[in-house]
Amino acid sequence: MKGHIAVEGHGDVEAVGNLVSRLSKDLSLDLLWDRPIRWKNLHQDKGIESVAEYTRRQSGVGALLILRDEDDGCPRERGPESAAILRRLQLPFPTAIVLFHREYEVLFLPCLPAMAGKQLGSGVAERPGIVPGATFTGDYEGLRGVKEWLSSQFPPGKSYKPTLDQAPLTRLIDFSMIRQGNVPCFGTLERALKFLSTSSAGVYPSAG
């Protein structure tokens, strides 16, 4: 039995796979995870329904985790609304939906001290990363355009490219730094993983 993951973008596949596997191990959770798949329209009811029904047809499913960005909506409202769609489907395995506010890359901001000055990738794929000394102060989830802000922290003439940089930066995420930074969507992810690993059915978050 393995957990299945649905994500939005190209860069999310490898990055989220690394994040969820490492975090599950850090939390001492037993559930193993399959490689994430990309799915269209996860911000719409039809996208959530279609990936859920697709997963229902697979064999050996232990859980389903859906992750996407929530740029402007309130995750406290949108999360339960999306979960209600899953709840109506009465899937035979536990499911959860986690909204990164405003973007997945918000998880990088508290970890900049561990990322700054590090080269990204290796060998012929090696790229310059975030410049030494880069920091961010303020409300992590309040920053609009995190990708653009990250680009401003790359060397002159270089920019953040999700398809190339999202996974290498994810490998540099320090969970203790994120927890200390109290990033709400990361806390949601932790609770979702704990729910999925200990439940036989049901949906996270709750209807409330």
Care to describe what's here?
The chain is of the alpha/beta class and 208 residues long. The chain folds into two domains: 125 residues, Rossmann fold; 77 residues, no CATH class. The chain is built from eight helices and six strands, in the order E-H-E-E-H-E-H-E-H-H-H-H-H-E. Strands 1, 2, 3, 4, 5 and 6 form a six-stranded parallel β-sheet that branches. 38% of the residues are buried.
- Using the coordinates above, name the CATH class of the largest domain: Alpha Beta
Structural class: alpha/beta
- Say what the CATH topology of the largest domain is: Rossmann fold
* Cα gyration radius (Å): 17 Å
Q: What best-fitting shape do the alpha-carbon axes yield?
A: globular
Overall tally of domains: 2
Low-confidence stretches: none
* Chain-averaged pLDDT: 96
Give me the CATH architecture of the largest domain, please: 3-Layer(aba) Sandwich
Largest sheet: 6 strands, parallel
Report strand %: 5-15%
Q: Could you give the distance between the termini?
A: 29 Å
Fold topology:
Blueprint lengths: L1 E6 L2 H17 L5 E2 L3 E2 L6 H12 L4 E9 L5 H15 L5 E6 L11 H4 L30 H7 L9 H10 L3 H7 L2 H15 L4 E2 L4
Parallel strand pairs: 1-2, 1-3, 1-4, 4-5, 5-6
Brief descriptors of the model:
208 residues, alpha/beta, 2 domains, 6-stranded parallel beta sheet, 6 strands, 42% helix, globular
Brief account:
The protein is of the alpha/beta class and 208 residues long. The chain is 42% helix and 13% strand. The protein has two domains: 125 residues, Rossmann fold, CATH 3.40.50; 77 residues, no CATH class.
